[in-house]
Amino acid sequence: MLITTENSIYSIRVLEDSTYSIRGGWFDRQGMSPVRISIAGCTWGGSVIRSDILAACGLHLEFGNRVVTSRIRDFQVIRERVDQIVGFRAASSAELLSCCYGSRRQTLGG
Fold first, then answer.
1. Cα–Cα distance for residue pair 49/96, rounded to 1 Å
2. What is the mean pLDDT of residues 22-33?
């Protein structure tokens, strides 16, 4: 997965034990890339964290070491062979919208 934030680009690869191999951004600047680390989830910038979301535009990604990225601008999922994918499941657009904006989002004109 490639995640573009307001200030950085991160390359994230899922590993077999619920950890991730991370390159880029803060980890590059600290001379730590690649690093094996957990991901706590996504936040809106405060203390509430969505541990079931790896990346969503407009949110911040929080790593297991408490490093929080700037807002996510874009992300791309780059699939490996099916027998190598660990920990991901397909999500519908409606599920992603509900996770990001809640189940009571307003529609245009209504």
1. 15
2. 92
Q: Do the beta carbons of residue 43 and residue 62 sit within 8 Å? A: yes
E strands, the chain, in order:
2-5, 9-14, 20-24, 35-37, 39-43, 49-50, 60-63, 72-76
Spell out a b/e string for 45-84, using b for 16 or more CB atoms within 10 Å of the CB, else e. Answer: eeeebbeebbbbeebbbbbeeeeebeebeebeeeeeeeee
Q: What is the pLDDT of residues 29-87, one digit of tens each?
A: 999 989 999 999 999 888 888 887 778 889 999 999 999 999 999 998 887 665 555 55
Q: Which of 1, 63, 79, 2 is nearest to 27 (CA)?
A: 63
Give, for 109, the enclosing helix (H) or strand (E): none
Residue 34: asked if its preceding bond is cis (omega within 30°), the reply is yes
Could you tell me the CA-to-CA distances from 96 to 21, 69, 76, 91 in Å, in that order? 24, 20, 15, 7
Domain ranges of the chain: 2-101
